[in-house]
Amino acid sequence: MIESSGITGIEETARPATTADGARIAEMAAEAIQEQIDARGGAMASAREFRSLPADEDIGAAIDSADHLVLVGEFDGVGVGYAVVRLERLRTGAALAVLTDLYVHAEAREMGVGEALIGAVTEWAEDNQCIGIDSIALPGNRATKNFFETFGLKARALLVHRSLVEPQ
Length: 168
Known about the structure:
By secondary structure, this protein is α+β, with helices and mostly antiparallel strands.
């Protein structure tokens, strides 16, 4: 477990999820998507990149998969966030860690839970000899971009889009 709190008696940890965590993680996945859907790029990301909802079955499969790591982020023993990362084999044969989900409840942000989650993801990626970690941040989401940059994740491509229909 990763601990990062400077507050005596309080700890932020990231632990592997169990099947018992699946329903709560699926709820947090829905909260994460709802939080971003109205942001610039959010509607298309929810249709293409974000996890399909309801996510119960999908999260359960990820928990049981050897090519995925699902984590629960806790603050003083209470689950307030989660992360999902998967291995992707590249054409070169190398492995890439793809961080598909990273979410911490708004009330628990800036308390070290996100740091514990990304630390555990990084450790897992290193253990699996990944050449890097990829994730996405919506355009204009400066807090997510800054958070990722703190841990060395920087933009390596820009995805552009032109809508041909009015948003619904």
